[in-house]
Amino acid sequence: MAGELDFADACDDAVGALLATLVADLPAGARVLELGTGTGVGLAWCCSGLGSRRDVRIVSVELDPSLHRRAARLAWPPSVQLLQGDAVALLPTLGAFALVFADAPGGKWEGLDRTVEAVAPGGVLVMDDMTPQPWWPPAHTEAIATVRSTLGADERLRVEELPVGSGVLLARRCQPGAPASTGGARGVSRAGPAGSDRGPGR
Description:
- By secondary structure, this protein is α/β, with parallel strands linked by helices.
- Helix content is 30%, strand content 23%.
- The chain has a single domain (13-190), classed as Vaccinia Virus protein VP39 (Rossmann fold), CATH 3.40.50.
- The model is unreliable at 1-8, 182-187 and 190-202 (pLDDT under 50).
């Protein structure tokens, strides 16, 4: 569907495989949140990680009504819930999640504090397109820098940078009383270089 819509910013295969791996490890009863359904590529990777399991619930939020309607027409497992609306406004109503994949400006560039609050203690926040590329607009590069510094300064998070796709930040929310990482830029530890020809966003 991404090809049919000329949607170039769909989740790439390397990031998708990472999501599938993370989701596959979740225990029964866990919840997953995706911010930015897009054409459903990232969501499909999450579902593939679960295989035939239906004991993990996935909630995916899309701002664009047209994309939401198209994604809703696809055959998703009954454990998947698709929501249409502003992620920043919806986040306080959704509860806590074991895994959050923030793949849209809402909840990533805007309302990041609400996204972090939606990560349960011990849970993981995944963000892609986090390694700036020289051809990206200055405003996007600045937004990414703000996200990186905000996550790195958050003492509740242990943050690692992975050389996957166009750069992935993986932030685990520490259990109360557990120390966060102090590597890198106050918590952001680099695992190596990353790069891709994808633009920022989904």
